[in-house]
UniProtKB/TrEMBL annotation:
Residues 117-167 form the RNA polymerase sigma factor 70 region 4 type domain. GO terms for molecular function: DNA binding; sigma factor activity. Residues 21-91 form the RNA polymerase sigma-70 region domain. It comes from Caloramator quimbayensis. Pfam families: Sigma70_r2 (PF04542), Sigma70_r4_2 (PF08281). InterPro entries: RNA_pol_sigma-70-like, RNA_pol_sigma-70_dom, RNA_pol_sigma70_r2, RNA_pol_sigma70_r4_t2, RNA_pol_sigma_r2, RNA_pol_sigma_r3/r4-like, WH-like_DNA-bd_sf. Keywords: Sigma factor, Transcription, Transcription regulation. This is RNA polymerase sigma-70 factor, ECF subfamily. Belongs to the sigma-70 factor family. ECF subfamily. GO terms for biological process: DNA-templated transcription initiation.
């Protein structure tokens, strides 16, 4: 498949960069997709669709071997796999208990508040974490997020709104627990 993807790119530098991205992350992407779909063929389809979506936004991919890129790729393949799962089951939602997710996290040692916020974000459902990550970590616009996740911009805005509301609730509960 790599030659097909490379044919879609202009410039030798972009081709070399994409080849490195492909070699570095294809196995992780397959693993994440297969954990959700439990079907190797569907997992391969999810990886392929994800690579095509990455190609559409390839100018936004920075350094290949960094946490931000890995997070972006895992988020993209996870959402593609979930979309395929939903199409296959003809359901609109997946109970979170039925799906194990691979979430890559690195220790945050910047400040206590940031650590507190990060723990609160980890308690959110994955659909909210993904939208928050794409919006505030990856810095994509609502329109770009909608296109990547195959949802409408209105759904992106609503998920961001709900994620912020849930974060306030989580942080408020933790603060009141700390006071007691």
């Amino acid at each position: 498949m790599l030659p097909i993807y490379l044919a879609m790119l202009d410039g030798e530098e972009d081709k070399n960069k994409f080849e490195l991205l492909y070699v570095t992350y294809r196995k992780l992407m397959f693993y994440v997709a297969n954990r959700i779909l439990n079907d190797e063929r569907l997992a391969e389809d999810a990886v392929h669709q994800t690579f095509l979506k990455i190609l559409e936004n390839f100018d936004k991919v920075g350094e290949i071997s960094c946490h931000k890129t890995k997070s972006y790729i895992v988020t993209m393949v996870r959402n593609t796999a979930i979309n395929l799962y939903n199409q296959r089951k003809r359901r609109t939602t997946i109970p979170l208990e039925d799906v194990e997710y691979c979430i890559t996290t690195e220790p945050i040692s910047v400040a206590e508040d940031l650590d507190h916020l990060a723990r609160a974000v980890l308690k959110l459902p994955v659909i909210y974490k993904d939208v928050l990550t794409l919006k505030y970590v990856q810095e994509f616009s609502n329109e770009e997020i909608a296109k990547m996740l195959d949802i409408s911009e209105a759904v992106v805005r609503k998920r961001l709104e709900r994620a912020k509301r849930r974060l306030k609730e989580i942080l408020g509960r933790e603060e009141s627990a700390d006071v007691n």
